[in-house]
Design brief:
With 421 residues, the chain is an alpha+beta fold. 37% of the residues lie in helices and 19% in strands. The strands form three sheets. A five-stranded mixed β-sheet has the order 5-6-1-7-8. Helix 4 packs across helix 5, helix 10 crosses helix 11 and helix 12 packs antiparallel against helix 13.
Length: 421
């Protein structure tokens, strides 16, 4: 295998774009520090109910805590062992959502072409914004800081792929511009896992081929990539390694599902507790569907046992509906198909095959019982995942960056998280 891969060029078939990616720095922690400035400079960890002796995972760790090896998605108990002096805070999703809306409002002052990737992330197309990319990036950073008191990292490139990669190169509080000419010197030397679409499993496959850097992947024959990784994934990664990505900024999209789940603080075989959790999750998911005017074509449950085996059951809703009682009945029927012979760790529900109401001619009734905000089953019993379930639902509706292979990167980042951010 040669040391230097051949030169790569972005596609000349489309006009050069300027895409800017924004990633807020340690977002949950940063928002918390605005109301707890006394914690600045200390290792701070946000996750679960803020009790590291309960079940839960790290949502965000401050950079001070990361020095001790604390990472997002890590169990809180492990984080406590690594950094016993850390300050643990509970997740306050409503607070973070308000801060996120302020950030997005400032971004839209620069460009209406905004793709909302999550609470702390977004892409905007600045192709038509006058000025040099670096100047635009600095102006956005200053505007966000002035409006929210928060810092962010910005990456700018000719496409979403390189813009995202540029952001990662400059964290925290950085501003990085990548051009086509930078690919051989700044992109190819990077570890292959830095590339979107390369998770742990794909990285292991590539290592067996002797591929450890993005440059090595770029020089790999596309036929070899396809043979080892599959047609779609292999071709996507080969293109991505050359910095090629023509995916558009997607400003609106339809959600694929509404999901909720809870993790019990103690594994349980109590069917009443499981049913109570199922009912609350159903109400929360149905309320979201109603507020966004969607009907569910399928309803399903997920049961994770104490040994981490997960069983899923689903049934079709005919006709599609947002009626809480009908959906709860379907979910109970799904649950009845799961032998509860072992203790249960997690219960989840998912409403899928969504249809917007405007595509239905006949009106659908709704249950009054869902017109009030749903809460999780007893906070003493569960991990408080009802907020995290909302975040996971948003993950379900995010568009792919350039190819379905993007989903592996997302899935890899969420492994072991119990579906938390």
């Amino acid at each position: 295998m040669r040391d230097a891969p051949p030169p790569a060029l972005l596609s000349n078939d489309t006009p050069m774009r300027r895409i800017l990616h924004v990633d807020m720095d340690a977002f949950f922690v940063a928002v918390e520090l605005l109301r707890r400035p006394d914690l600045r400079g200390l290792p701070v960890i946000v996750g679960g109910h803020g009790n590291p002796r309960e079940r839960g995972v790290v949502s965000t760790a401050s950079y001070e805590a990361r020095k001790y090896g604390v990472l997002s998605a890590m169990p809180l108990r492990m984080a406590l062992r690594l950094c016993p002096q850390a300050v643990f805070l509970p997740v306050d999703l409503a607070l973070y959502e308000r801060a996120s809306r302020r950030v997005k409002r400032e971004l839209r002052r620069f460009s209406r072409a905004l793709e909302d990737v999550g609470l702390d992330e977004a892409f905007i197309d600045i192709s038509d914004v006058p000025g040099e990319p670096g100047d635009i990036g600095r102006a956005i950073k200053e505007r966000i800081k002035a409006a929210t008191g928060l810092t962010c990292s910005i990456g700018i490139g000719p496409n979403k792929l390189l813009a995202k990669l540029a952001t990662d190169l400059g964290k925290p509080d950085g501003l990085t511009v990548l051009t086509e000419a930078d690919i051989p010197t700044r992109v190819w030397p990077l570890d292959v896992e830095k590339l979107l679409g390369v998770g742990p499993k794909t990285a292991a496959q590539l290592r067996r081929l002797g591929v450890t850097t993005i440059g090595a992947l770029a020089m790999l024959p596309v036929s070899t990539a396809v043979a080892y990784l599959g047609e779609a994934h292999g071709r996507y990664l080969h293109q991505a390694a050359h910095g090629r990505d023509d995916s558009p900024i997607i400003t609106r999209w339809q959600p694929r599902s509404f999901s909720r789940q809870v993790t019990f603080q103690r594994d349980t075989a109590d069917r009443r507790r499981i049913l109570r959790a199922l009912r609350e999750l159903c109400r929360s998911a149905v309320l979201e569907a109603q507020e966004r005017h969607f009907l569910a074509g399928t309803a399903g449950v997920a049961i994770r046992f104490a040994d981490f085996e997960t069983v899923r059951r689903q049934m079709k809703m005919a006709p599609p509906t947002d009626d809480a009682e009908a959906i709860e009945t379907a979910l109970r029927r799904c649950l009845a198909r799961v032998p509860l012979l072992r203790k249960v760790r997690l219960v989840g529900v998912r409403l899928g095959a969504l249809i917007h109401r405007r595509h239905r001619r006949s009106p659908i009734s709704t249950s009054r019982s869902t017109r009030r905000p749903a809460r999780s089953a007893s906070r003493g019993d569960v991990d408080g995942d009802e907020d995290i379930g909302r975040a996971c639902e948003r993950a379900d509706e995010r568009p792919a960056l350039a190819d379905p292979a993007w989903s592996e990167r997302r899935a890899a980042s969420r492994r072991g998280q119990e579906c938390r951010r």
